[in-house]
């Protein structure tokens, strides 16, 4: 199965038009008749699913369009770039067989350019949503299916001659910048065709075409979606929708944000639901923010753009023009440049020269040699150095190991540039000013580097609006080994029916865990995959909130996070389907003492990676809030996978301090002081809990040991473990072997003292009472990485 992970999202991306005119209905139009805008008439398909007629797109502006009768969702437009006047405009089927749209009684705006001498020529809207002009012999002269706009309906072919073109934006249906079409290699592709640059961004251009599982050999260039939700293309690209099977209506739409989504109509709620989408990380869509800008994804808002430091928006009404420098480019000479660090920021493409095994100085110096070098991308591990002549498609991602160093004039600090963010909408709303932290950091030599915590934790903590919190449910226990580890990304995320899951769990019989939020059952899907099915208590939250959350969790994809394979939401029932980890949790393995020091180290590192991903992936950021050994599952190679993240409710900080929220706090024994003292909750609460987990792991001493009686007692106990370790470390008679004193005696002294000392020191930093003194999860990963490299 090649369908990609695809969350169901609730989106209001549907073409937000105003409403069609209320009107009388027609079955067909024949030669010599017309539909006039003043006497509103619409053509209706025999099943009444589709309507065609004049559709209002603005003040006194109309398009001739086809829409779903019930939802008014437009699927085709004749004159999207040239709306007609609300007076004396009409669609006429002329005597010669030509169908024409005239504006204000005069200008022909659009025509099918058909000619027919046949005595009968008729225009009808078919049940499929196809508007068809045919003659007496039922020969099709013209059909709207041959001229798609931004939507492909089931059975409508996308061919070598057709393409989908997105709308300009949410409120404007004229042609936008994104196109879906077959490229010259026969590959179905998404193209950003912007005002200044154009580039293909799907399939990902850096993938070899066969890695992207496409074929270039079939030149028939045909793609089609069937009504069950099976899309297949002649380049071997196929997918099945999340809700494969009979659904009332479907449409595949190239949305104005450059993503292509399959929507299903949910009858009960009379709304469209996304059942597949091509791109999971919206900032990877090219052209999003134009040149010299950074894209970031904000939960609940969608994508936002901001100009790079030293740059300003080119056209304050239109993000697609990007940003331009506020400084004079002629200052880009050798003596007058500085470089500003943008951590984990990628700008794809436009490299002028690639060097390896360079020092950072070598890299920036080589940039200074070039007049048009705007920045360098540099990776410390490999010494890879790329000089950039254009800064396009910028986004931040902790996955991205290189940093970008932006070249700016020395006078940069005098440039007044509050970093502005703007949302991607036609309207000018939502300009938000953010605090940014600039930390100066001297490097030897003439080049100074400034640390810019753009999208990293610094920035996020300052701009934190949402905290996503957490639930707890026990994990599982099973003896058998299993190796269903890695090929998960390909298996796809889907919606399950309750009946399916009931069957998979044999009527919810084999309980493997239980927590405040529901019960976990073991199950076997019809394709024989073993799963852990978490049945949440009924009506924990509204269905819309639930779907929004599921879409977030479903999109998180990291080897150190447990995979979610699907969900079920029917009525009040809420179930989540996870991969099943045969090896149980860290808690179980700690108590059975099956771990050696290298494995402990790997678990510490992997857990840190998973949490760092949750905290810092710009796409979404999620606090876990319940980090503990029970929530760290192990695969067959002792690679940890963090579970139970993001089972959540979007809450702002105010709500976190609300007493009703207190039950969502983490598990006693692992809770940071902020919880107890009612201080703001940040990602540092997870850092704290992580520190406890590491100490427990290395000392073999548990902070909770099943004691769940008094809060205070337990918090005191976890303080005691911390204090004990600290005392040993800083003991009055500081000995070199303090580590031997604290290590789990069951290890029998077999471990690398140096490494373990550093690991414990890192854990203690994580356990600082003052949250600001704790490192971020990402810093922990970096430190452990260094250790690991020494280790190998
Ligand atoms: C359209 O809406 C009407 C009334 O709201 C409803 O009876 C009908 O089932 C709907 N049709 C579809 C196709 O959803
Ligand atoms: C829609 O966008 C186009 C292209 O930017 C613009 O020319 C047109 O005026 C816009 N229409 C409306 C109704 O805003
Ligand atoms: C989907 O369609 C393709 C091409 O028609 C076919 O090969 C494949 O078996 C179909 N998949 C399912 C699940 O029906
Ligand atoms: C090319 O693709 C079309 C449509 O998917 C399919 O019907 C045809 O069999 C393919 N041809 C070859 C040679 O694979
Ligand atoms: C750069 O500095 C050197 C010496 O510091 C000077 O000779 C040279 O003229 C300067 N170049 C420019 C372009 O200012
Ligand atoms: C990289 O450079 C260093 C010193 O500049 C050299 O010792 C090393 O062999 C180089 N590595 C490679 C892979 O070229
Ligand atoms: C890199 O920098 C070092 C020290 O500054 C210098 O010796 C070396 O020649 C530089 N290498 C290149 C390729 O510029
Ligand atoms: C982890 O603990 C579970 C439960 O005690 C046990 O079945 C499993 O074998 C342990 N894992 C390993 C790799 O030893």
From TrEMBL:
It comes from the Eukaryota. Residues 506-788 form the Protein kinase domain. InterPro entries: Bulb-type_lectin_dom, Bulb-type_lectin_dom_sf, Kinase-like_dom_sf, Prot_kinase_dom, Protein_kinase_ATP_BS, S_locus_glycoprot_dom, Ser/Thr_kinase_AS, SRK-like_kinase. Belongs to the protein kinase superfamily. Ser/Thr protein kinase family. The keyword Lipoprotein does not apply. ATP binds at residue 534. Its EC number is 2.7.11.1. GO terms for biological process: recognition of pollen. This is Receptor-like serine/threonine-protein kinase. Keywords: ATP-binding, Disulfide bond, EGF-like domain, Glycoprotein, Kinase, Membrane, Nucleotide-binding, Receptor, Serine/threonine-protein kinase, Signal, Transferase, Transmembrane, Transmembrane helix. It holds the Pfam family Pkinase. Residues 28-146 form the Bulb-type lectin domain. It catalyses: L-seryl-[protein] + ATP = O-phospho-L-seryl-[protein] + ADP + H(+); L-threonyl-[protein] + ATP = O-phospho-L-threonyl-[protein] + ADP + H(+). It is a single-pass type I membrane protein. GO terms for cellular component: membrane.
């Amino acid at each position: 199965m090649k369908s990609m992970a695809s969350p169901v999202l609730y989106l209001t991306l549907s073409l937000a038009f105003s409403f069609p005119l209320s009107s009388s209905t027609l079955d067909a139009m024949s030669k010599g008749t017309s539909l006039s805008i003043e006497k509103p008439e619409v053509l209706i398909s025999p099943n009444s699913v589709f309507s065609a007629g004049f559709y209002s797109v603005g003040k006194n502006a109309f398009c001739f369009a086809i829409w779903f009768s019930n939802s008014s969702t437009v699927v085709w437009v004749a004159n999207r770039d040239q709306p007609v006047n609300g007076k004396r405009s009409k669609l006429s089927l002329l005597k010669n067989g030509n169908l024409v749209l005239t504006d204000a009684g005069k200008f022909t705006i659009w025509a099918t350019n058909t000619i027919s001498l046949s005595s009968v020529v008729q225009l009808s809207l078919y049940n499929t949503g196809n508007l068809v002009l045919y003659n007496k012999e039922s020969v099709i002269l013209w059909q709207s299916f041959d001229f798609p706009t931004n939507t492909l309906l089931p059975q409508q072919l996308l061919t070598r001659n057709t393409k989908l073109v997105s709308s300009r934006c949410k409120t404007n249906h004229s042609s936008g910048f994104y196109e879906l079409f077959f490229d010259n290699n026969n590959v179905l592709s998404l193209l950003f065709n912007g005002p200044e640059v154009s580039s293909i961004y799907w399939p990902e251009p850096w993938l070899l075409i066969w890695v992207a599982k496409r074929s270039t050999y079939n030149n028939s260039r045909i793609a089609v979606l069937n009504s069950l939700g099976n899309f297949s293309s002649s380049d071997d690209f196929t997918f099945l929708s999340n809700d494969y099977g009979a659904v009332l209506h479907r449409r595949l739409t190239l949305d104005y944000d450059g993503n292509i989504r399959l929507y299903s109509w949910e009858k009960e709620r009379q709304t469209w639901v996304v059942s597949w989408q091509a791109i999971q990380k919206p900032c990877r869509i090219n052209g999003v923010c134009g040149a010299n800008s950074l894209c970031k994804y904000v939960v609940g808002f969608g994508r936002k753009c901001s100009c790079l430091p030293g740059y300003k928006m080119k056209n304050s009404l239109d993000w697609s023009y990007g940003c331009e420098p506020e400084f004079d480019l002629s200052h880009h000479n050798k003596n007058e440049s500085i470089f500003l660090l943008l951590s984990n920021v990628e700008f794809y493409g436009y490299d002028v020269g690639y060097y390896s095994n360079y020092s950072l100085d070598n890299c920036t110096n080589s940039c200074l040699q070039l007049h048009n070098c705007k920045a360098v991308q540099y990776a410390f591990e490999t010494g890879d150095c790329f000089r950039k002549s254009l800064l396009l498609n910028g986004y931040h991602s902790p996955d991205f190991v290189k940093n970008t160093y932006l070249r700016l004039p020395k006078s940069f600090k005098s440039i007044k540039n509050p970093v502005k963010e703007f949302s991607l909408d036609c309207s000018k709303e939502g300009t938000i000013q953010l605090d940014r932290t600039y930390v100066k950091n001297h490097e030897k030599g003439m080049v100074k580097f400034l640390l810019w915590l753009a999208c990293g934790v610094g920035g996020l903590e300052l701009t934190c609006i949402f905290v996503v919190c957490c639930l707890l449910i026990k994990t599982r226990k099973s003896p058998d080994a299993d190796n269903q580890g890695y090929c998960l990304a390909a298996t796809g995320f889907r919606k399950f029916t309750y009946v399916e899951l009931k069957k998979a769990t044999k009527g919810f019989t084999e309980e493997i865990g239980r927590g405040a939020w529901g019960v976990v059952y073991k199950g076997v899907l019809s394709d024989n995959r073993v799963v852990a099915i978490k049945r949440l208590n009924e009506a924990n939250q509204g269905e819309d909130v639930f779907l929004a959350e599921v879409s977030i969790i479903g999109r998180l994809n990291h080897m150190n996070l447990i995979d979610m394979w699907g969900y079920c939401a029917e009525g009040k029932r809420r179930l989540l389907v996870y991969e099943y980890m045969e090896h149980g949790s860290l808690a179980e393995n700690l108590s059975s003492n099956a771990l050696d020091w290298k494995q402990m180290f790997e678990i510490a590192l992997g857990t840190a990676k998973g949490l760092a991903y949750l905290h810092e992936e710009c796409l979404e950021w999620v606090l876990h809030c319940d980090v503990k050994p029970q929530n760290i599952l192990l695969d067959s190679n002792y690679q940890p996978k963090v579970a139970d993240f993001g089972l959540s409710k979007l809450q702002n900080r105010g709500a976190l301090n609300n007493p009703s929220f207190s039950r969502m706090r983490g598990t006693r024994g692992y809770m940071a002081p902020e919880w107890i003292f009612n201080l703001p909750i940040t990602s540092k609460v997870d850092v704290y809990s992580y520190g406890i987990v590491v100490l427990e792991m290395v000392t073999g001493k548990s902070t909770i040991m099943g004691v769940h009686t008094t809060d205070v007692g337990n918090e005191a106990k976890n303080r005691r473990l911390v204090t004990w370790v600290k005392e040993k470390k800083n003991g009055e008679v500081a000995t070199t072997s303090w580590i031997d004193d604290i290590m789990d005696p069951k290890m029998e002294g077999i471990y690398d003292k140096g490494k373990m000392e550093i690991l414990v020191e890192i854990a203690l930093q994580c356990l600082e009472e003052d949250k600001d003194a704790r490192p971020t999860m990402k810093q922990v990963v970096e430190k452990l990485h260094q250790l690991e490299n020494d280790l190998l």
